[in-house]
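Appendix B, record 7
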Amino acid sequence: MIFFIQEAMQKLTAKEYHSLEAPTLFSEKDSRCDKCFGFITIGEQKYKFSWYSTLVEPIVEALDSNLLGIGIDQHFCILNTSSGVFKCWDVDTPFLYMIVYEEFVVVICEISILFISLDTLKVEKDYLFSEIISDVKLENRIMKVVFIDDNKTAIPIDDKNSRFLTMQES
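Structure tokens (predicted):
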């Protein structure tokens, strides 16, 4: 289920953001770089966040009945809507999108992929590539990654020592 941004998140001015008494999910390491500001309301609680890019909007998506994923720029956050507990990560490359797959939320970034456990909220696996990712498919515990130059790789996600397998065109 994808939350419509205009319903789940509201934008703020910088002044409104700084005066809002609410937990901060994430912001740029140097807050002088923040250009965009927003908040999300869960029940009676508001959570605020800020980001750099003026060209893209945050993605807010339900991960399960109690967890929301929020990603933008080089930030990703999971918010437990029942308890109000949240965990955020600064990712190395720009966030693209997220996929819920079995017991994980798979965070797809420009050249990296994180597998975060929905139970423990810990990064269980991470992959760094030298090429920009254009698509990711997960099936039968194999992650198939397509890059912008049309190169492809397949990775068995259960193999802790896996080497990337070059996919053959079919």
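Remarks on this record: Residues 14-19 form the longest helix (6 residues). The CA atoms of residues 79 and 86 lie 4 Å apart.
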